[in-house]
Design a protein that fits this description.
Blueprint (H helix, E strand, L loop, with lengths): L10 E6 L6 E7 L8 H12 L4 E4 L6 H9 L3 E4 L20 E3 L4 E3 L5 E8 L4 E6 L1 H5 L4 H4 L6 E5 L2 H13 L2 H21 L9 H25 L1 H9 L1
Parallel strand pairs: 3-4
Antiparallel strand pairs: 1-2, 5-6, 6-7, 7-8, 8-9
Length: about 240
């Protein structure tokens, strides 16, 4: 991928086990963000650990489709939320949470009791848009608290149930985000500053970057095992 200074860059991914802090899976991709990395990294870690794992990730990995797919495999996700906020009206207007969704009728009910019915589907954004009738909004006593437009719109993610379940898990166990920070930040810092030295890959093209990153991950894991197990154990293990 290209950076602002036109130099080649790579997106480095790791999955770190929380107890040993060993890197159990890693990858080099050319996507500019982490939106599509949750599922492949969680699946890779589960294959290495030989069982469905629990995965903790920051908001950059928030992907409802991936969370739903992992749920179906028994892989539990704790991903920081990245839900949209209604900033219109200076943020004083009703948020989406004020509208109640009814799955039976596939519609929302607004705080004033009017229905917002399905209007359109955005496959690109994986969102369904619901709209109130302009006539309902025009005569509503709560319109000034709700919208500055002719009618109120509310969107719902195609994988809303998976996102809500993930949010509930995280609300029940907020310490998971602290666990993520203390688990994944140190290995990355060690690789960038102690192993790679200048925090840059020297190889070019994806194959070269993957080879160099794999060597860096192996070096980190060997140093980590040495620190955990000690020199005699390490010597015996290397001798087989």
């Amino acid at each position: 991928m290209r950076s602002l200074n036109s130099q080649p860059g790579y997106n480095l991914q790791t999955a770190v086990e929380t107890q040993s802090h060993l890197i159990v899976a890693h990858e080099v991709v050319c996507e500019v963000n982490d939106q599509r990395q949750l599922q492949p990294m969680a699946e890779a870690a589960s294959r290495v650990l030989q069982q469905p794992c629990s995965v903790v990730a920051d908001a950059g990995y928030a992907n409802g489709e991936h969370i739903a797919a992992l749920d179906a495999q028994g892989i539990t996700s704790y991903v920081a939320g990245e839900r949209s906020v209604n900033h219109q009206g200076g943020g004083s207007l009703y948020q989406r949470s004020a509208f109640v969704y009814d799955p039976a009728s596939d519609s929302f009910t607004c705080p004033a009791g009017s229905a917002l019915k399905r209007k359109q589907l955005s496959r690109k954004d994986k969102m369904v848009v619901y709209a109130a009738q302009p006539s309902d909004c025009a005569g509503c006593a709560q319109k000034l608290k709700c919208t500055t437009a002719r009618q109120r719109f509310v969107s719902r993610h195609l994988y809303e149930e998976a996102l809500e379940a993930n949010a509930s898990r995280l609300a029940a166990q907020p310490w998971m985000m602290g666990l993520r920070r203390q688990t994944v930040e140190h290995p990355f810092a060690s690789i960038k500053h102690l192993i790679l030295g200048n925090a840059r890959l020297l190889m070019r093209h994806t194959s070269g970057a993957r080879a160099e990153f794999s060597l860096a991950v192996m070096a980190y894991n060997l140093k980590r095992v040495f620190n955990m197990k000690g020199a005699p154990w390490m010597h015996q293990a290397l001798r087989g």
